[in-house]
Each structure stands twice: as structure tokens, then as C-alpha cells.
Amino acid sequence: MLLCAILALPTLAQGRKNVRINEVMVQQDTTGGDGWVEFYNSSYGTNAVEKMFITTLSREEIQKVFDMNKGTNKKPNQVLLELCEARPMDIYEIPRGDERNTKIAPRTHFVMEADGNPKAGTFHMPFTFTAGKDNYIALYDVNGDLVDDVTIPATLNPGETYAIKAEGRLPSVLNDNIPADSIWTVKDGKTIETAITKGNYNIREVNENIDAFHDKDPHGYWIALLAMSVVFGALAILYICFKLFGIVSKRSAGDNEAEVSAPVAQAAAAVPASGDLDGEKMAAICFALYQHLNAHDQESGVLTLTPRDGSAWATKAGLMRELPVIKK
Fold first, then answer.
1. pTM of structure
2. Ramachandran angles phi, psi of 196, nearest 5°
């Protein structure tokens, strides 16, 4: 059980907390045009993003709402739902019911339109971005945990996007000490490197985790040691389990033998050690043996059939029904 728990720890990271803000456009061109937010499922499992919350409210404002509801026994999702009703233009809950589209495949993207028209569909948010000023957007899980957030700088020009660099690890709100310039970059679409592909589904060929592991273990010694440890650890656990099972089985078999031999021992203890019995007991035993051995007469086991001529079964008269005699 302990080994299973240890091996299951890495799977905790493969959840909705792996959804990341990947690219943001504030304004499509100088004449206007709605912005959009591209999210990226960085895990290797399908994630259902329904019931997650997208908001332009800052961390401080969200935390203030949570603090106000302390002691009310309300769950975080209830608090966020009430906030959606109170401020529908600032926070949006991805609705349930569109399961075909809200189930995001591993290592793929989905786009939320910042057009201020949530009635247009599941992926349309109720708020818009404003060009020429800092725009903040955050993603919260259903349990109220902050999954990811980003502040788009006011210097972003129309037609440009604020996006994660192709190389390096994806950002995490758990590590705010990383400079934004080392994670985010501006794309203007003028070159292949800075191409803007809204909702691009060309999966990254570079696996950041594998590259990082290769840097830390270039010769593969640690991965070999880890693999052998898992295999031999599993074999050791199986050996211990089978050993314990054998001990329990032996003890159970010994208890059964003791239960069976107990009546025999009691009967043997009832017989006097000298072997002498009184007359009445001897007579009862002899009578029981006589009844048992002489329960049936001696039979030869041979059947003798004696044929008879003129049997009633062979006479026609015997086959006729006899009519009753009517007295006059």
C-alpha cells in the first residue's frame, strides 16, 4: 500500500491545475476587434475544464471575498458562483453541459473569446480587454485554488500577442520569483518565430520534462537505478505478502486440526486407563455390536423365477371387465 501511494504521487500533478494561460491578444488591430485568451493543457491526460472560473479580478479582490465568507460553511465554488451573480462582467464560470468541447485532450489548446458576449457560446467570456492599459486575467479551479494568472502589459500593441516562449517550463503561480521576461514574449506575426496562430494545435516537439531530466542525468544512471528499485521493490513486497499468507494459512490449518482432534481426545480421556469397564457398560457395548452385526438376515443374493402355465395374464377372459350381477 505504501509503494502504491508513493507511485501515485506523480499523478497528482496531472490534473486541472496543469491548465495554463498560453497566449493572450488584447486587440486584433488598430480599428478594434475582440481579444482572446489561449489556454494550454500541459498534462498528459484529458482535462475537463467545465466549472472552472476565469476572472479579471485581482488576487487581492478574490481573497477578500473568500475572507468575507469565512465561518459561513460555504464551499469555495459556492462563493465564486455568488460572485458570478454579483459581478457577472468580471468573472465567468465555464458552464457544464458542453462535455464534448470542454474535455481538453492532452497537450492541446483551447481559446476563450474576450468579446463580452457569453450568450454566444461556451467559449465566449463576458468581459473584454482594453488596449493601452495593463490587463489582468486569472484561472481558478472549482475548489477556489488559483491555477494560473498573467498581467498583459499596456505596451502591447494592437495585433500583437503576449505569449509563452516556445522553450522553457510553463509558468506556475506557485513560483512568482521567475521574471516575466524569461517566460513571456511578444509576438507580432512578422516572422515564423513570432507567428500568431490562434488556437494552434501543432503540439510542441520539445518535451520540457525530458530535456530537463536529460540535463540532470545525461548517462541514464538515475533512471536505471529508479527502474531497478521499483522492480525489486515490487518483488520484495510480493515475497513478504506470500510469506505472511503462508504463515496465516498454517496457523489456520493448525486451529482446524485442533478443533477436529478435540472430540477424539475427550472420548479417549473418558475411557479408563486400566481398560476395565463395569458390567452394565460392557453389556451395552456388546448388545450394540450384536444389533449392528445382525441387523439383516443372511441372503444368498440369487433370484429364482418359476414359470407358470395358464397365467391369468395370458387368458382373454381375464382381460375382460366383469359385469356386475343384477338381481331381479
1. 0.59
2. -105, 110
